């Protein structure tokens, strides 16, 4: 039977220690990298939420109708958050930014806005190295339909009744057209701002510099 001598034991001890310490250093480095990414995303989420709130509540804020509704172009920054941030963070930025804007200006719309703003994140992709691509441009059109139909349903839930909705097909169609027209102005304007912001940021390669792809 073979016996390990003292010198061989010392060699094994040194090798084991090197492997253990090296593994710990690699694990620590990876953990720090993951933590750094999370901090970066959380910071960007907070910044985007604040910008969405300001853009929605105070910049190009146009009241319409008698029910507290308004047209704005804050959705452009929700689109931007959707292509810059991982989806869960984009959801949070959209919900907080849109919700806070409504709480400051038209509180009755806040619950519906939180849901709708999260939904308009869905059509966009953050997988591309560039902000502006064909998919994200098409996504602005999908976001328009989500917003228009979403607020149309929300308006009936908040201010109308489903009985009245079912009793008047003509009135329903008219109300839907009005809602879609308002959303067309809002989503169309937001799409233009989003494309302009995106082109400028793509030229500066902001996404590649700030976020790991």
């Amino acid at each position: 039977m073979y016996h390990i001598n003292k010198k061989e034991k010392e060699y094994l001890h040194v090798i084991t220690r090197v492997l253990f310490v090296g593994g710990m250093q690699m694990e620590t480095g990876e953990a720090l990298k993951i933590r750094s990414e999370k901090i970066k995303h959380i910071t960007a989420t907070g910044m985007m939420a604040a910008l969405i709130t300001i853009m929605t509540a105070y910049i190009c804020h146009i009241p319409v109708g008698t029910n507290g509704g308004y047209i704005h172009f804050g959705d452009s920054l929700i689109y931007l958050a959707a292509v810059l941030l991982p989806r869960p963070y984009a959801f949070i930025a959209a919900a907080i930014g849109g919700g806070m804007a409504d709480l400051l200006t038209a509180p009755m719309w806040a619950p519906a806005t939180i849901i709708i703003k999260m939904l308009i994140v869905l059509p966009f992709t953050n997988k591309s190295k560039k902000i502006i691509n064909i998919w994200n441009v098409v996504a602005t059109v999908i976001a328009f339909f989500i917003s228009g139909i979403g607020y149309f349903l929300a308006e009936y839930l908040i201010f109308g009744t489903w009985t009245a909705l079912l009793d008047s097909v003509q009135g329903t169609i008219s109300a839907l057209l009005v809602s879609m027209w308002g959303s067309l102005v809002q989503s169309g304007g937001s799409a233009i701002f989003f494309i302009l912001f995106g082109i400028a940021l793509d030229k500066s390669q902001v996404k590649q510099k700030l976020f790991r792809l």
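Residues 17 and 23 are 10 Å apart (CA to CA). The domain at 34-210 is CATH 1.10.1760.20 (Arp2/3 complex 21 kDa subunit ARPC3).
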